[in-house]
Amino acid sequence: MGALMVTEFKGRVLMVAYHYPPMRGSSGIQRTLKFSQYLPQHGWQPLVLSAHPRAYANSGDDQLAEIPPEAIVHRAFALDTSRHLSLRGRYLGWMALPDRWVSWCLGAIPAGLRLIRRHRPQVIWTTYPIASAKLIGLVLHRLTGLPWIADLRDPMTDVDYPSDPLTRRVYRWIEAQTVKHCTLAVCTTPGAIVTYTRRFPRIPASRFALIENGYDEENFANAAALLKPAVPLTGRPFTLVHSGVIYPSERDPIPLFEALAALQAAGTVTAARLRIVLRATAHDDYLAGLIAKYGIGEIVSLAPHVAYRDALAEMLNADGLLVLQATNCNHQIPAKLYEYLRARRPILALTDATGDTASALRQAGIDTIAPLDDKNGIQAGLLRFLQLAEAGQAPLASHEAIAANSRRARTAELARLLEQVTVTVPNALKGTSEAC
């Protein structure tokens, strides 16, 4: 970057994010990518501190072009313990605490300090769901005194999450240190903020801020070029697509498979009427066993990961879109839900009616919701959904609800927070300049 361009920015932000192109296969990539893409329009230059591509199990160049030319991107040393440091698939547990990418800290902390010395950012921003990112942010904040916005997204811990007790203790320590030392803690749902204010009653509520996930209109415009001509439902099955990871616990599909097996046995739902595509689940082997166990292979099929644009095109082409979200994630909303809303296809949500996901759907005008953990409830909800969708009467997201969820709008919210912390902690700027 030349000196002339640098003077155009009101400030710089060091963005610590593991999920960033060329990584593929996670909707979490889009949050950081779009923030970095649109922040220059608000006068902020992004300095992105990410991981070396070797750490990614799945990578590709399909979204590299969306990284803005104004961004300075550094990919620090990082390994995946399970792939690079294991012996015959086994490794010592401490080598993956807090996560399998803890080696990223060894590369990212010194790299972050070099970026701070060279480019003088006004704010540090770190994002979950990799716990190591929080450690990196904590250390950089403590060493430099720079204001730190911790993008927590969802609660890091729960009563039984992570499932391993030692990992859970480490996560809770990182979580507590993050909330204690950060300047602002950003969550993606109102329920997550409620969880944290109750969990840390001594922390002022003003420390927590809300920036929900969203969708990107430019990505959808590009995906629209791949659309196929609409095919009438007459003579073919209704195609219901789930796009993205299916966690065995947080998105347990077993009750759904049980419901499908019962409906298939009754002849109410057959392969001639319904086809469910599970795209890029990240747990295909596990799901394939369940599909075979319940004998629903003619209805349910697994599909591999595709480029992000192709995944959006599939959403636009689908007859319907499927959401799975368990009760233990009531204070979370899947990032892809906002893309589902933008696709304006009928949505069947299998989730708790009292959770944030159901609330977001109802606010958008969608009520085709059934409980994920209730086989009988799923049967009733699926049949109602199919009847509405086949008749062209399934509710779709309102245009107003869609517009409010754009990534551009979310970036404007982040820009306001960046300005807020640089105003409320002005001494950090001076201190960092002297220290670095």
pLDDT < 50 stretches: 1-7, 426-436
- State the strand order across the main sheet: 3-2-1-4-5-6-7
Largest sheet: 7 strands, parallel
Which structural class should the secondary elements be placed in? Answer: alpha/beta
Distance between the termini: 20 Å
- Share of residues in helices: 40-55%
DSSP strand content: 15-25%
Average pLDDT over all residues: 92
The global form is globular
Number of helices, where a helix is a run of at least 4 consecutive DSSP H or I residues: 17
SSE series? HEHEEHHEHEHEHEHEHEHEHEHEHEHHHH
Number of strands: 13
Q: What Rg, in angstroms, do the CA atoms define? A: 22 Å
Describe this structure in words.
The protein is an alpha/beta fold and 436 residues long. The chain is globular. It has helices at residues 3-6, 28-38, 81-84, 104-119, 131-144, 165-181, 190-199, 217-224, 254-266, 284-293, 308-317, 336-343, 356-363, 375-390, 399-403, 407-424, 426-435, and strands at residues 11-16, 44-51, 72-76, 123-127, 148-153, 184-187, 208-210, 238-243, 274-279, 300-303, 320-325, 347-351, 369-370. Helix content is 42%, strand content 15%. The chain has a seven-stranded parallel sheet with strand order 3-2-1-4-5-6-7, sandwiched between helices. Strand 11 (320-325), helix 12 (336-343) and strand 12 (347-351) form a beta-alpha-beta unit. The chain contains 17 helices and 13 strands. Helix 8 (217-224) crosses helix 11 (308-317) and helix 9 (254-266) packs across helix 14.
